[in-house]
Amino acid sequence: MSSQKITTILLDCDNTLVLSEDLAFEGCADLINEIATAKSVPLPQPFTGPSLITEFVGQNFRGMMVSLQKRYNFSMTDAELDDYVRREEDVVIAKLKEKLVPCVGVDAVLEKLAKEGKYKLAVVSSSALRRVKASVEKVGQDKYFGEDVYSAATSLPVPTSKPDPAIYLHAIKVMGKRAEECIAVEDSKSGTLSGTRAGIKVVGYVGPYPEEEKEHMTQVLTEAGAVVVMRDWSEFEGVLERIQKGEL
User: Which of 34, 76, 145, 227 has its CA 20 to 30 A from that of 175?
Assistant: First the structure.
């Protein structure tokens, strides 16, 4: 295989850079149950953080609400949805500011990449920009990305969510990059599909998943298009080298 010049590394935020999914979905579940009560939606049982993660990992709150409106045949006005989106951001950001920690091993990787100076680093997330910035600032990772933090919920003219590739296409356009010179790191099916559909090679990451789910999620991410799947950030340097050599 021919070698490939990689110039840019695009990183998902939630459960790729920071261990945020459990905290975020915990707050999100409470709000969705409140909405169901207000809209007289007969849920089979109330949502919990874990049940939301199982079904919606990688999607943002707006995307979840669009799906749930279709499933349970209820509707809300744009103003109502915007209000709930803001409330969800506030609830989740408060939890993140209190308890958020980085994914194991990622800070050492980011520090080394920054010192080498070979690659442009950016965050590409489904989550709201305010939440993403609060997350990377809380754990001290904001210094690696500057203004290159992109949100499918906030950065686009029309808000969307992964697996729509729009946010990846937007990010590489703003940075003046081509898909073939980028790689993305993603922990979810929707994120992997988003990057792959944008023509970007995706490295899967299953580190935060419980041990009994890692093998299954490795298969899920591979089927979604990941060229390789890491269990730990210590593998990243070797994976990057293999991609540069054209082996992946």
Answer: 227
